[in-house]
Structures are given as structure tokens and as C-alpha cells.
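Predict the assembly for these two chains.
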Amino acid sequence: MDCRDIRETISVCVDGEASPEEAASVREHLASCERCRMLERQMRAVGAGVRQVRGRVPERFREEVFARLESEGALPKRKKVFPAAWRWAAVPLAAAAGLGLFLLTSREAVRTPVPQAPVASRVETTAAIPPVPGPAVRPAVPPVSAQGTTAALSIEDRKMIALLDILEDPAAFDANGDAEGVELLAPGDSADSPNPPRGGRSGA
Amino acid sequence: MLLFREGSREAFEELFSRHHRAVVRFAWRMTGDPSTAEEAAQEIFLRIARAAPTYRPTAKFTTWMYTVARRATLNYLRDTKEDGERVPILSEGEGEDGVYPVQLPGPDDRNPERVVWEAQLTGRFRTALGELPEGYRAAFVLNRGDGLSYGEVAQVLGVTVQAVKTRIFRAREMLLSRLSKDVSA
């Protein structure tokens, strides 16, 4: 076979695409043709050359491709990321909510006066409150003795204090039943006020 | 690809992980320019994603992928050509045989391995590759660079297997001719 006619078949043979008949004819020709043997080697070498042209994956190539895809809406959104994140976030969120609730109720508890305070200490506390005029208003608390006792209280004062204790303990109020005729006033109310008394029970 | 078509993002991520190197390599070999190759490679994945709704597994995924890749790079090469650079591009079909007569190096030339690789021949090889007509370059790159068979190359390029044989042979002749001139110059 002429060299000119077999060159393409040599190329096909180098690529491993020749039929058995083509491969046999190429082998036969190469055995007797130095020029085509050289050509066959050159063809192999140039085929290997293209694999040396590799380039490299640019930095941030993946990020840029996915960003473009997402901006086009061509990429489905992740399905499991957010539910999983919320599952993990649920624990600290619940803990924070519980702590907040605890702190809130604790502060409310601190603000609420303790009804079972002893009479003497309550008197000490109210001693600083200026007296409010009017017959149905809490009477002016008499000055406490140096020992902080109620020994110097009059009978009327003691009755009033007892009534106040009862007012702060409705159960005791009901049990004693001796608060007849007592009119309750909310702070700021006075007997002269045209408004009716608020809260609590009146003696009527 | 079918999973991606059905809405699986993970499927596309897997597809990307498997093929992005090959896509970048192919774009690099076809364009010969890093920045153009990167743009083309991004465009290839965008086209793959866009084509997912209409994808039909009538051929190997890689064959389809290279078809998309080749069309995308061809667009970039045409854009480059419009910008004034000389990029020989052949139209599709088989009518180009014999257009590029090549004087092959004779037996007195140097050892082929040295001819190809001596004196920083990788760069020269890349230049020579870029000067091939696009149809020849695509056939040669797909077969020798990416390992596609003649039949697969024919599918990608939309030509016959015989046309692929001819294109690859012509590409070899032109590369050897150009490289032997570079070395002897």
C-alpha cells in the first residue's frame, strides 16, 4: 500500500479504532517503511501532547457557578438544611424561653408583698407613711416606742391594726367576721371622694 | 441528571463534583485562554442546569455533556472571532476534507518525543492546538484529551464516524507540521 493512502489508517490505528484488517495492513506496511514508522511515533506523541494541556480549575469556580445557578433559580433549594438547623436551635431557644419566664415570674414574686408579715414589722414599715386625713382612711399610726413594740398603742389603734391584718388575709376576714362596718379604700381614695370605694369588700 | 431533573439539588452537586474538572479541561483546550475557559465552563454548567427539564437519557450523560460543552465553547470562540481575533471555525458537516494541505515532517526530522516536548513545547502545543479549525480541534481534543471513542465524538459533533477519522488525522498532520516548524525555527 502507498504511504499516502495508509496515513489516515495509521492515525486510526494509533487511536485504537482500526478494524483487525486495517490494523494488519498497517503492521505490514510499517514493517517495511521507515518513514511511516516515524510518522506513527509522531502521531502517538502528538496524541499524548493534548493531555498535557490541562488547565486548572479556577479558585471559587464552584461558588461562582452555584451562585449564578441560584440567581437564575435553576437550582433547587436545599431541603434539609433549615429543618435540621431549627431542630438544633430548638433546645437553646426553649432553654432561653424557660429562663426568661423564670426571671419574669421571680421579679413579680419579689414585688408582691408577703401577707403573713408580722404585725410589728408591718407597723414599722408603715410608720413612714404620712397620715391620710378622713374618718374611713387608715388612721395615723402612732409613733412606735424606742423598743419598736406596740405597747404604747391605744385600744383603738390595736383594733385598727387587727382589721388591717384581716384585710390582707381574706380568709381571716371571713373567719373572724368582726370587720362589720369597715369601709375599704384603695390607695388615693378618700372618704370625701365622690367615687365609690374600689376593690375588696365593704362592710355594707 | 434524572434525579436533578426531579428536583434533587444533591444530584446536581454530585454531577458537578464528578465532571467539573473535565469540563474546565475541555474548555481550556478548546479556548486556550484561562479566563475564557472559566467563563465557558461556567456557561456549560448553566446550560446543563437549564436543560435539565428537557433532558432525555438517549445517550451517555458524558456524550450529552460534551455536546453542550462544545456548543458553549463554540459560542465563546465565535464571540472572540467577532472581537477581531483569528479563530478558524469550520461549519458542521463533512465537506472540509483536503482543505488544509499539510507538509508532514520527513524521516530526517528529530526524534518525535523530543520534537513534541523539547523547548517548552507544552506552550507551543497549546498554541498550535488553538490554531486548528474548531471542528478538527474538537474531534482531536474529545478523542485524545477526553477519551471519547470515534462513535461518541461523532455523536457530539453531529457527524459520521468517517468524518471523525478524517478530522483527527488532519488535526494530527497540522499539529505535527506546526510543531516541527517551531522546533526547526
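Chain B touches chain A through 54 residues (CB under 8 Å). The domain at 112-184 of chain B is CATH 1.10.10.10 (Arc Repressor Mutant, subunit A).
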